Amino acid sequence: MRLLVTGGAGFIGANFVHQTVAERPDTQVTVLDKLTYAGNRASLDPVADKITFVQGDVADAELVDRLVADTDLVVHFAAESHNDNSLANPAPFVQTNLVGTFTLLEAVRKYDVRYHHISTDEVYGDLPLNDPIKFTETTAYNPSSPYSSTKAGSDLLVRAWVRSFGVRATISNCSNNYGPYQHVEKFIPRQITNVLTGVRPKLYGTGTNVRDWIHVDDHNSAVWTIIEHGRLGETYLIGADGETDNRTVVETVLELCGKDRDEFDFVTDRPGHDLRYAIDATRLRTELGWAPRYRDFREGLAATIDWYRAHEQWWTPQKRATEAAYRRVERVLG
Ligand code: NAD
Ligand code: TDX
Predict the structure, then answer these.
(1) What's the total number of domains in the chain?
(2) Which residues form the NAD(P)-binding domain (predicted)?
(3) 0.85 surpassed by complex ipTM
């Protein structure tokens, strides 16, 4: 089978390519990635001789047409993915997340190629704290940020291309991922690499916001389950019941690194900061029989810390610029 993975040099896409090469040796993998600040060719080093890499833009219609003509399946991870960046400059989010998805949809429509669309739980907005309610496949879209609104728009394009043109597509909306190869701008790797470089972790606002953490390998095993067993035209939510508030995450990282649990700073909150995300993955579990492998967040976090400790050369080049950008907008409180 010929597989085109967009955004395969990013965090989740690279892990997806690693898993695919290891577990599905008959799959011919081509990665299309623009190598933005978030893409890192080195993340594909372990599989470099087993895949084809194309540097390019998912919004480049001519290139996308050529690649899709020669593939059986497209899995679309490529996106501008960071909420804080979308507040500073939304333009690339509209271009990549909306125009890029549109470009891929036109190509899979033309060649009748199976398409899987990677999306986020953030399209549903946020939930109250301390409430049993969770997102399901029927929750109304209500995105808060430029990032989540462009992801929501891209999901709606997919739904329309399914209904109007019969495109053979599935959509998955996953909760917050953690694991190896995640850019140091994101919450968990930022705090781990802060501690490893002697800097105090930075907690937005009061640290009470809740995210529903899932290990990236579990996200990717769910994606394969949906590709192989999901019903065309359907949406599946992916989550592993990992709700944890941000303060607890920071305290756990500090503890696992042998520091005092209170050695962190509260900093200015993110504007429009979503309070809580929580996924009800019943459909995926009962209809498709999927289950996560990582059930202990603390253990997964410890393994992730070990990975960052062992791969300093992977993240050091990005760390300085990332922290300089944060320093421009962030103020330590109290
Ligand atoms: P990432 O920022 O780590 O990687 C994105 C990749 O896409 C990078 O390699 C980048 O170079 C590439 N890219 C960006 N613009 C491109 C373009 N125009 N053309 C081609 N390539 C381009 O992101 P991630 O965290 O791996 O997220 C991957 C996908 O998963 C995104 O669609 C995101 O919305 C979704 N998602 C992420 C999470 C999460 O917790 N990180 C959770 C749910 C869903
Ligand atoms: O330094 C920080 N301090 C902090 O308290 C950073 C970077 C973040 N935070 C908070 C904000 C969020 O409540 O931590 C939480 C997680 O932040 P991010 O890692 O930026 O993730 P989030 O905004 O929740 O979005 C992530 O999950 C859904 C991904 O970046 C998205 O791509 C995905 O769609």
Answers:
(1) 2
(2) 4-301
(3) yes
Q: What is the CATH number of the domain that holds 221?
A: 3.40.50.720
Helices (H) and strands (E) in the chain, counts: 12, 13
Residue 147 annotated among the catalytic residues of the structure? yes
Mean pLDDT value across residues 247-252:
98
Residues belonging to the chain: 334
Tens digit of pLDDT for each residue in 253-274? Answer: 999 999 999 999 999 999 999 9
Lining residues, ligand 1, CB within 6 Å: 6-7, 9-13, 32-36, 38-39, 57-59, 77-81, 96, 100, 118, 120, 151, 174, 176-177, 183
- 274 Cα–ligand 2 center, Å: 9
Contact 292, 215 (CB under 8 A): yes
Asked whether residue 120 is assigned to any structural domain, the reply reads: yes
Active site residue 181: no
- 265 and 150 share one domain: no
Strands (E), 247-327: 265-267
177 three-class SS: strand
- Reported as a single tens digit per residue, the pLDDT across 118-147 is 999 999 999 999 999 999 999 999 999 999
Residue 178 structure tokens: 């953690």
State in Å: Cα 57 to ligand 1 middle: 13
201: containing domain: 187-210+242-276+295-323
Mean pLDDT to the nearest integer, 6-35 = 98
- Is the pTM higher than 0.95? The answer reads yes
**Averaged pLDDT of the chain:** 98
